[in-house]
Amino acid sequence: MDYTLLLIQVLNGLQLGVLLFLVASGLTLVFGILDFVNLAHGSIYMLGAFVCASLTYALDSYLLAVILALPIIGIIGYVFEVFLARPLYSRDHLDHVLGTFGAILVIDTIAHLIWGPAGIAIPLPNYLDGQIKISENIELPTFRVLIIIVGLLAAFGLLWLVNFTRLGMLIRAGASNRTMVSALGIDIRTLFAIVFAIGATLAGMAGMLIAPITEASLGMGNNVIITAFVVIIVGGIGSVKGALVAALLIGLIDTLGRAFLDDFFKIFMSTAAAENSAPAISSMSIYLIMALILSFKPNGLFPPRLR
Amino acid sequence: MQFIKPLKFFILASLLVFPILFNQIGMSFYLDLATRLCILAIAAVGLNLILGYGGMISFGHAAYLGLGAYAVGIPAHHWLYGGLDFLATTNGFVHILIAIAISGLFALLTGLICLKTKGVYFIMITMAFSQMAYYLFVSIEEYGGDDGLVINTRSEIPLINLDDPIQMFLVSFSSLIFFMWLVHLITKSNFGLILSGIKDNEARMVSLGYNVYFHKLIAFIFSGIICGFAGVLLGNFTTFISPEMIDWSRSGELMFMVILGGVATVMGPLFGAIVFVILEEVLSSITIYWHLPFGLLLITVVLFFRGGLSSLFSK
Amino acid sequence: MQNILKIKNLNKNFGGVIATKNLNLSVLDGDIHAIIGPNGAGKTTLVSQIFGQVFPDSGQIFFQNIDVTQISEYKKSRLGINRTFQITSVMKSMTVSENIQLATDKIRENSLNFFTTFTNKNYVLEKVDFCLGQVGLIEANNQPVASLSHGDCRKLEIAMALASDAKLLLLDEPMAGLGPSETQEMIALLNKLKGKQTILLVEHDMDAVFALADRISVLVSGEIIATGEPNNIRHDSKVQKAYLGEA
Ligand SMILES: Nc1ncnc2c1ncn2[C@@H]1O[C@H](COP(=O)(O)OP(=O)(O)OP(=O)(O)O)[C@@H](O)[C@H]1O
Ligand SMILES: [Mg+2]
User: How many domains does one find in chain B?
Assistant: First the structure.
């Protein structure tokens, strides 16, 4: 086995994992606290990528673009909450699903109108585009390492926010007892909108981080959202910690499966058979894992105690 | 008869007569439209069985349409290009059998897991499994992967020629009537009564002694098979299949039809399909960005207009 | 007379809260056996354990001399035990008749009947009429349950329990939330069943209990502190101190 390759692939898996976490954490927060299903979360991820791309060209700096794009996406999330999510809180999940499905169509088409059908690549500044030399023959791409670090920082920041701050305390209290929080003199609706905006910002950030690697494109949101669903189902809907564990697990399994499953299959089947079946199996691997985990733990790995 | 009231009969009769008339005066476009409408309506009828009558919100039913279509395409592909001899055939009955078997099996296996869960979990897991089918077909190069598979020969059924658009339409139309009638029967049967009981109050049904999980699973499988059959027709109609047909936005459109038409009604899925197909046709002829008004409409319907179309008709 | 239900040394603990403590109980065939006790005494938990919705930590439950301790609820109703709920639980969007149809064994046994309007239609419909007649809801037959008053819903629950042909009915506070006149109706209704139907009746309303019960068990903090005929219970000093006196 080639250990350099393995290391690179593990790194890729972690990178996918943290990005998935950034998307999934917003979903799981919004569901856990607001009991709201937001299919359009992937579209916000896509908007993050496009807004960041435009700003990068306008400002000629990726870094500045990200710094400016984050609050923009946060505001979009806030507006989304006020106009679409809020009227639907009192409805059942079916209405959430249909309403936000409509929102996807609207947001995606608007993105199509603004940015056109082709993807937009984002150039990286030189200092992010290089490699980090680990040892004599191992070099890691700087930007990927950065994604992982930023993603993990965001993850721990979020865990800290939810578990150890006053805002987090209010959020958790608001989830279990809405009247109690209102009685504290806090406007519960603003609180919920803030939660929504935080979730949107995180998803947008994931889009901004991935865009320099894959480019910003129209279908990206709809691809990521299902995987994010798998993550929060496996993690336990509503649990931020569960989302983190599941995101890393899913990211690693998906990446390593695609990279090494055929080699693994060759151990016990013919080369041709392995090369034929490996892509099919690895493309399904995360769903199979999800099925496996659910048959033992129908509420996911870390079902939140609240509900 | 309860099954069809006069107004509804009129709608069905127009759906049968006008497309053929238009076709005779050279506007074959409307016949194609009506065929597609019937096929989508069959899928919506299948989805309505569990969504409307059983309260199971599946967001993955496009997968069955895809499975049914591939059940036509794959045997036809091998018949033409060789390989997998046991599958290679253009016999329509075999295609239908394969479609029923595969969609039934897929419903059974995924249903075993999905139905252990409720609410949002169920919505998301059905979605995830249909996406699994999507990626499966994307990854199989032999069947065209991403690009899809052209079906060179339509299913062969004695006395019927699916290459003839009028016959294709008649087959789709009569299948639609058949499945509407079948689902109507089911919902009026013991099983249907139990299914509505489960939708209404699952816990109470358990204490009344029903094996709720099992009954839901059966309904889930039925529903999958009906959509699988619609897939066979769709494959024959478009003579082309691609994983895009399984994409979850297709499942969303099916749900839209069922909800807009009015859940748990016989005609609802048909109304929903009519509105959807007309909207799609009208809007997309005005602008290639037809998803924008369509999405806005969907949001408007959800926010302000509940109960579906057939609630207007039943008054 | 024979025991239809016998409970031996039953214990149930909810993370520290003792809901059932070393409980022994026998219900005689044909009796209306009332369980009384203050709020939180563990009455509902006892019913749920008998019915198999909650499983005891230890102890045994015998129904017609068969150990049914570990048998889950959906099989219990097939054995001939049925229950009603303290908080009304019916199929709200369906009609009164459909609710009762679902409770009959004929529908349950032919649950995989897909294509015909139900088998034994006449038998089932007669049963529906009979049960509705028993509880006095016959006019409501084809009304949606959602349009019923709370009192009528409580009656519907009794009718559903009757339709199941259960040998043992567990009624969890059938008078809960009823006004005075409705309570009288419910007492009269249950009185009609007296002698024909074995009932374990959980109830707060003392007048109802003393009017109906053949035997009474008093449950306090998960323990049965006395069992006996109404007169004996009324004068039992332990009961007066622990329960009646406090009211
Ligand atoms: N699922 C549960 N989890 C934890 N505690 C429970 C549970 N069910 C019941 N309890 C507790 O067990 C005790 C007995 O409850 P139970 O509902 O059986 O009382 P009850 O006699 O029916 O009261 P009431 O007269 O109010 O209906 C209570 O303290 C209750 O809080
Ligand atoms: Mg109680």
Answer: 1
